[in-house]
Sequence to fold (566 residues):
Amino acid sequence: MKERRKRDVGSWGRFFWCTFFVVISCVVVTGFTFSTFTIFGEKSRPVLVSSWRKQALEAITGESYIPPAISIRETVIFPDQELVFLKYPQSARLFTKDELVCLYFSPNSSDTHIKLPPEDVDHQIVRCPSRPRGFTLSLALKSNVLLPPGPTHLWDSLVYEALIDRDNTTVAFVKGLNLKPERASDPTRFECVYGWDFRKPKFLLRSEVVSIAQEIVRCKTPLSVLNNPKRLNSTIKVSVRMKGKGAILHSVAEPKHRSPPDPPVRKPHVMCVCTMVRNQARFLREWVMYHARIGVERWFIYDNNSVDNIEKVLESLQAGKFNVSRHMWPWIKTQEAGFAHCALRARDSCEWVGFIDVDEFLHLPAGASLHDVVWNQSSTVAELRISCYSFGPSGLISVPPKGVAVGYTCRLTAPERHKSMIRPEALNSTLINVVHHFHLRNGFDFVNVDRGVMVINHYKYQVWEVFKEKFYRRVAAYVADWQDEENAGSKDRAPGLGTRAVEPPDWSNRFCEVMDTGLRDRVLQMFEDPETQRMPWQEHQEDDEVESSILMEQLRSKRMVYSEPL
Fold:
């Protein structure tokens, strides 16, 4: 009996130690596989690659897969392009456009793959052409290092930008809510969600929505996020869900602090301008130089997927001491959201901000400056609404060499709509705007500027080679693209053109009812060299136009050519 009890004790002891050893082994392996661990005082984090991806990548290169220092965080799929977000280790250098390749391969075949150059690389965002049907998009370094694909999101339902405002609320920019324009919606129907992985509800923070309108949601930021600055510099994201329906919108938005809690006592600039551009680089020099002469001190350029070497033009302007900055804004049909985002960025440095396009020129017929106009306003006036005159091709069939203000001199008689200059401090917290004007806080009002004091010359109907680009896509969220049948009679469209970019035989003589040479005469007086009769922007304009045409033609041809394997 004693011997049997001894054998039982011995067998249970062996079972205990064996079980203990197995458990400890599993914990160690799991720690090495999924967690950050320390070896000789240095931290390491393994990179996991699914077996089919690893095999496909190895088959493409013919070499063993080596986990790179950078990784693909996620990808956003647009109708005609894709944005790939990269994740870099701290202190790692950023890769350039010349070092990366957009790689498309089929998960079911290691032999079928395509590589194309990226359309643009801006810091941690790589813009690639759309993937062929049935293919997966990844990236490769030209040094034969491949990056495994990350999770993908569709653009039509996405939280795409976010920032922490002065009052510690989070301002989130959202696509897919489909709210009505120019009105606030009921915030109690929604909630904001913060977290690293929205697939794990146990690890999410929820907060109330303060306001919601159009594509902008203002959230009450959780204290645990505000009190831990490191979280704002990590990959924590914010999203939105409609209560009762469960689904949390996909998100790539990481909220960051944009401005100090208290406004500055004195702002460095009286007059600033925000604009959104796509392939308008060749017109920027004239537009910036002219507006600098009449009082604009700072320009915020929101680049909406340009491929015309805009960086080079802006660098040249910066070298000429113009305070111009480029902000990558890849989100399509989001002009209202982009202008709200710009208003928040400009608020700390600008007393007034104008929202105009690159084909729109502020004209002061009496010869005053912008500073004269805004200084004459009372303290309760926070928006100046300025009438727009639309100019036609003025008999031209090619781009005027001295610029648009000198070249186009014939316009429609009646003004069309208006554009605004605003005090960003006075904006309503919802940030509602419809491109032409913003909603203001209580106690502030707008005025319609007398046309004898200031108007906008809108060179809307230029020569056909320029004008036809408007058919590609309209930037405003609540304006139908011209290729769509929707709202065919809208004033935003060119009368009589329909939905196809086909040049009418009489295009050069359309939209000409009144000769107006007021701004042309002033621009010639300001800028024309008396000896050469040239304008200062002409020194680079020809080169800009040639480079722009070459770059866009190269991009079109590269999209159509499949390249050989890596």
Summary: The two ends are 74 Å apart (CA to CA).
